[in-house]
Amino acid sequence: MKRQQVLAGAKAGVPIVFGFVPVAIAFAVMAQQAGFRGGETVLMSATVFAGASQIMAAGMFGKGAGIAAIILATFMMNLRHVIMSTCVFNRMQNAPLPLRLLAAFGLTDESFGCFTTLEKERCTIWFFLGLITVTYSSWVGGTALGVLFSSFLPPIISASLGIALYALFIGILAPNLGGNVRLVMLVLLAGGMNALLCRVMDSSWALIAATLASACFGLFFVEDTDLA
Amino acid sequence: MRSEVIFLLLGMTLVTYIPRALPAALSEKMKFSPRVEKFLKLIPYTAMAAIIFPGILTADAANPAYGLAGGAVALAAGLKKKSVMVCVLAAVATELLLYLMVG
User: Fold this and answer.
1) Do B21 and A43 touch (CB under 8 A)?
2) CA A7 to CA B75: how far, in whole Å?
3) Which of A104, A131, B36, B53 is the S-S candidate for B21 at Cβ 3.0 to 4.6 Å?
4) Which of residues 172-211 of A touch B (CB under 8 A)?
């Protein structure tokens, strides 16, 4: 029974692998360019397991941001996981605490999306553990592949990958923005504030200040129904 | 491994794991006030937007137009609800073409 649930979860993770591996490779190349060593890059994927945060961290590290600013930015980026984790564990029948703490480590936007759109009777801890085993392995494996590849890449390809971080975030944001004036205003406000704040303070702190301040303003004009 | 990087990884691991584990660790089901929940949902939008701009202007150190061109292609793909993967590949291909054709 457990075995079947783990296998079903693993199978549900396969489509996610196709999304994770290319992004993991791009992350690995960016991290190397930012000055991380190969081992450090793979270790980051193995311990942090949060794609957007890792790519952001690599970008900030490459621009010389301090450790504290990178960690604070990572924290804010991952606050959304409190909500996702709440949804996932509220859906799950009670499971022993050690298993839940293990499962929590593997929570990502993608495993959340997969698990919370599942029929409720299939939502077990074993399904979730099977799911995250596959997604986690592909993320760490993809990073290792990227580290191996990066030394063979021609400079023109490496330079072209500089856009990947921005394209990743645009690709996540854009489908939600289509036709929603208030969300478009929100992202323009955040970008605009960051551009202004960059002129008066260090750019990594400007990023954090602009993120928090524009979210505060957003409380007043973004409707609850705009946010999934 | 450099001690600076060890601290960075340790810190990043903690601040990533804690938000994931908190709801799992609490035996009672977690509830937020609607206002806090809304704030937490707004953060990813504002954080990603602030990362994109003005940073995208420096995707190519010498020419801001290159970054904008790649961003425009990713935006077009994203608005057409293409997957994130397609957006990234399209933007990288745009840069590659620019470097090959314009230099």
Assistant:
1) no
2) 37
3) A104
4) 172-178, 183, 186-195, 198, 207, 210-211
Structure tokens at A143: 């990073």
* pTM of the full structure: 0.78
ipTM of the complex: 0.87
Tokens of B94: 């745009």
Domain definitions of chain B by residue range: 1-31, 34-103
CB A199 within 8 Å of CB B89: no
Minimum distance, in Å, between the CA of residue B43 and any CA atom of chain A: 6
Which whole number is the average pLDDT over A201-208? Answer: 84
- Is the N-terminal amide bond of B54 cis, ω within 30° of 0? yes
Contacts of A164 in chain B (CB under 8 A): 88, 91-92
At A94-125, the pLDDT tens digits run 789 999 999 999 999 888 878 877 787 888 99
Closest CA–CA distance from residue A3 to any residue of chain B (Å): 22
Query: What letter represents residue A220's amino acid?
Result: F
Whether A71 and B8 have beta carbons less than 8 Å apart is answered as: yes
**Which of A223, A85, A218, A200 lies closest to B49, judged by CA?**
A218
